[in-house]
DNA sequence: ATATTTAACTTGCGAAATGCAAGTGATATT
DNA sequence: AATATCACTTGCATTTCGCAAGTTAAATAT
């Protein structure tokens, strides 16, 4: 509800502005989940592997919505659930995510197979086109399977804890 | 001196790893200063417009060095000063910065002239090649002039304050 | 019809990061 | 010899983060 508007920018530099909106450890990860994995619900983000806390997740979803990067609407089939979706402004982050992917794949030890990365790098345009198609057609099948399936077993409010009382 | 090694990764996803290293409001801005403006000294980063606090700047420079993104060496001509320089891993962030630049230029109100942006988008490869050449040859002339020259007049430890006593 | 789950949050709280102003020490300049 | 500059560091108040637990409404099971 609180449509908090940005108080002021520290400069007019586009890079600086990007970082004011997206410069934290979680925002782009949520965008990744929506973009390449087809995630749409709070629950899916929560269990996507990196173990984001629920309060932080709620906060980031609000901020991304306020920034015009995603929208929310109640799920048609389940009154409890909501569906988050990238806006055109949100899906336009695809090239940024792709370059971050390539950079880390080359310079850090990641779970991404080199061969797979090389293939994507040679077909950059096709990968982006397919990403865009999936978004346009609301195709929720994952573009890329999650690397390293069981990365962080511990999750806040683990369903394992079976509500003691 | 404290070469602090990353304790552990939250997942093997390259995007996630990128964000663990670069996911804050300042790190990529320092990389931008080095890459496109040719900045090399603490002082230049400090006065680059966005008003980073000196303790944060020192911290980020250490972390970027620890991550292998930049190196430091004492300045040849001035014993007080140090020169920071991007490593190959650091200059490889050029495509990421470029995409962040394009994204904000299209979707936010920035100080970047549309015409200028359009030209860069059409010559992406050339822009990257020139960026790389400048780095390789240690050419410090700015690739892009700072947008919005006088953005944030207030700076920590402003030199205006003329050391009262 | 009632009890139990489930989805999506919110709240409380200690720990860590951030931002600001001032201070320090080693050069360099006047 | 005195002063200015560079690259930090320190102290401290404020903000954000991360974790665990609690809440509300809607769906499902009994």
What topology does this entry show?
2 copies of one chain form a homodimer.
Chain A: H1 14-22, H2 27-36, H3 42-46, H4 54-66, E1 70-74, E2 82-86, H5 88-91, H6 94-107, H7 114-122, H8 124-136
Antiparallel strand pairs in A: 1-2
The first copy, chain A, binds a DNA duplex (30 and 30 nucleotides) through helix 3 and helix 4.
Described by its quaternary structure, the protein is: homodimer
Count up the domains of chain A. Answer: 1
**In terms of structural class, how would the helical and strand content of chain A be classed?**
mainly alpha
Low-pLDDT ranges of chain A: 149-165
Q: What strand order characterises the main sheet of chain A?
A: 1-2
The description of the largest β-sheet of chain A is: 2 strands, antiparallel
Task: Describe the fold and architecture.
The structure is a homodimer of 165-residue chains. Chain A is mainly alpha-helical and 165 residues long. Chain A has a single domain, classed as Orthogonal Bundle (Arc Repressor Mutant, subunit A), CATH 1.10.10.10. In chain A, 47% of the residues lie in helices and 6% in strands. Chain A contains 8 helices and 2 strands; from the N terminus they run ααααββαααα. A two-stranded antiparallel sheet of chain A has the order 1-2. Chain A is globular. Chain A starts with 13 loop residues before the first helix and ends in a 29-residue tail after the last helix. Residues 149-165 of chain A have low confidence and may be disordered. The interface between A and B is large, with 50 and 50 residues. Chain A binds a DNA duplex (30 and 30 nucleotides) through α3 and α4.
């Amino acid at each position: 509800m609180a449509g908090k508007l940005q108080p002021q920018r520290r400069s007019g530099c586009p890079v600086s502005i990007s970082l004011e909106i997206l410069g934290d450890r979680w925002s782009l990860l949520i965008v990744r989940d929506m973009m390449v994995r087809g995630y749409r619900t709070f629950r899916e983000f929560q269990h996507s592997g990196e173990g984001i806390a629920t309060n932080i997740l709620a906060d980031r979803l609000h901020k991304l919505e306020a920034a015009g990067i995603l929208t929310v609407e109640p799920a048609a089939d389940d009154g409890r659930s909501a569906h988050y979706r990238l806006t055109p402004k949100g899906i336009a982050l695809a090239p940024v995510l792709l370059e971050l992917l390539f950079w880390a794949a080359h310079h850090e030890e990641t779970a991404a197979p080199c061969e797979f990365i090389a293939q994507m790098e040679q077909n950059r345009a096709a990968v982006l086109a397919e990403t865009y198609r999936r978004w346009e057609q609301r195709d929720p099948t994952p573009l890329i399977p999650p690397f390293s399936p069981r990365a962080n077993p511990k999750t806040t409010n683990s369903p394992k804890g079976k509500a003691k009382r």
